């Protein structure tokens, strides 16, 4: 089954956001350029929008995540989970054309199953559900 361009873009954005946490000296654009040859332009374009959006709204996104997380500080969350959450919250709450919350949550959960730990999917699901209920 071929992944949708948007799912691929979310995964690509996740990989780049994850990498930039460990190597902040490498620009996201440099990392995106590496993938540009192997994926469709539509995918890299949406991934770029997600990356720039998450980076520009990071403080507000993290505040929403923190407000919905009673027991976890954002900086103590697993790096993969934190970045999956950031992408989903950006798409739900901050994107120029926000996507439906249930779609953002389902996408984040599927990506968490693929890239996270065995607990990641339920953690991401529960936290994003709280974010979606908060106004």
UniProtKB/TrEMBL annotation:
<keyword id="KW-0805">Transcription regulation</keyword>
<dbReference type="InterPro" id="IPR035926">
    <property type="entry name" value="NusB-like_sf"/>
</dbReference>
<comment type="similarity">
    <text>Belongs to the NusB family.</text>
</comment>
<keyword id="KW-0804">Transcription</keyword>
<dbReference type="Pfam" id="PF01029">
    <property type="entry name" value="NusB"/>
</dbReference>
<protein>
    <recommendedName>
        <fullName>Transcription antitermination protein NusB</fullName>
    </recommendedName>
</protein>
<keyword id="KW-0694">RNA-binding</keyword>
<dbReference type="GO" id="GO:0003723">
    <property type="term" value="F:RNA binding"/>
</dbReference>
<feature type="domain" description="NusB/RsmB/TIM44">
    <location>
        <begin position="7"/>
        <end position="133"/>
    </location>
</feature>
<dbReference type="GO" id="GO:0006353">
    <property type="term" value="P:DNA-templated transcription termination"/>
</dbReference>
<keyword id="KW-0889">Transcription antitermination</keyword>
<dbReference type="GO" id="GO:0005829">
    <property type="term" value="C:cytosol"/>
</dbReference>
<comment type="function">
    <text>Involved in transcription antitermination. Required for transcription of ribosomal RNA (rRNA) genes. Binds specifically to the boxA antiterminator sequence of the ribosomal RNA (rrn) operons.</text>
</comment>
<dbReference type="InterPro" id="IPR011605">
    <property type="entry name" value="NusB_fam"/>
</dbReference>
<dbReference type="InterPro" id="IPR006027">
    <property type="entry name" value="NusB_RsmB_TIM44"/>
</dbReference>
<dbReference type="GO" id="GO:0031564">
    <property type="term" value="P:transcription antitermination"/>
</dbReference>
